[in-house]
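Risk mitigation, structural track. In case the binding assays with magnesium ion fail to produce interpretable data, a predicted complex structure has been prepared as a fallback.
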Amino acid sequence: MEISQIDLSRVPEHVAIIMDGNGRWAKQQGEMRLFGHNIGVESVRKTLKAAQQLKVKYLTLYAFSTENWNRQKEEEDGLMELLVNTIAGEADELHASGVRLAAIGDITGLPASCQCELQEAIKKTQENTTITLVLALNYSARWEIMNAVKNIAQEVKQNNIDTDLITEELFQAHLSTKDIPDPELLIRTSGEHRLSNFLLWQAAYTEFYFTPVLWPDFTGEHLMEAVYDFQNR
Ligand code: IPE
Ligand code: IPE
Ligand code: MG
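Fallback model:
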């Protein structure tokens, strides 16, 4: 698959990815699960680069779900450490290539060091316009929807809004994706065919693309294949 096969005038503005299969990939190599997560960072780099070439405007990556706290402590700690180190290590390069970093999810539930690096990188890159890289961290769509409901209920209670004014637009404005358009294309790797609590509201009309490729094997070319498939539906 080459970029020349893609109609650059009809590339999805927002692509979301459920990056899955790091653990299985590591097992196949006879390695620890964390090794798979580490190699998965390389796939993030490749995918982001290809998304920039395609002029995708928003790339959302499901990096850590609220349910992922159910994993072994060792894996959780390793994932958080990887996250902190990656964000800290990549911030300058992201900035140099015009990437604006954003995050969705319950960021306050992340370790302090992680929140700190994240906020710093978000601030540093806030004026960039090439692409917005949205990291879903400690994210769960049900949490996000519940949170919106609570906030709206609070506003109604304080007489700030009338219930008649609760529209789809108002609801959307209370989600953590409030400034982000809905994804046109959602990719899940590793052969699983579920949403796993990702973007439930936002994916109402999204096209899904499933591939058996495990995340650490995913490259820019795979992203192009998904976009090509999307364009030929
Ligand atoms: C996805 O890979 C990465 C995260 C959820 C952080 P997994 O860790 O879910 O890998 P599998 O599904 O066990 O292979
Ligand atoms: C979804 O993958 C979450 C992320 C990619 C961060 P999981 O591997 O955690 O999902 P389930 O548990 O298989 O549904
Ligand atoms: Mg998984």
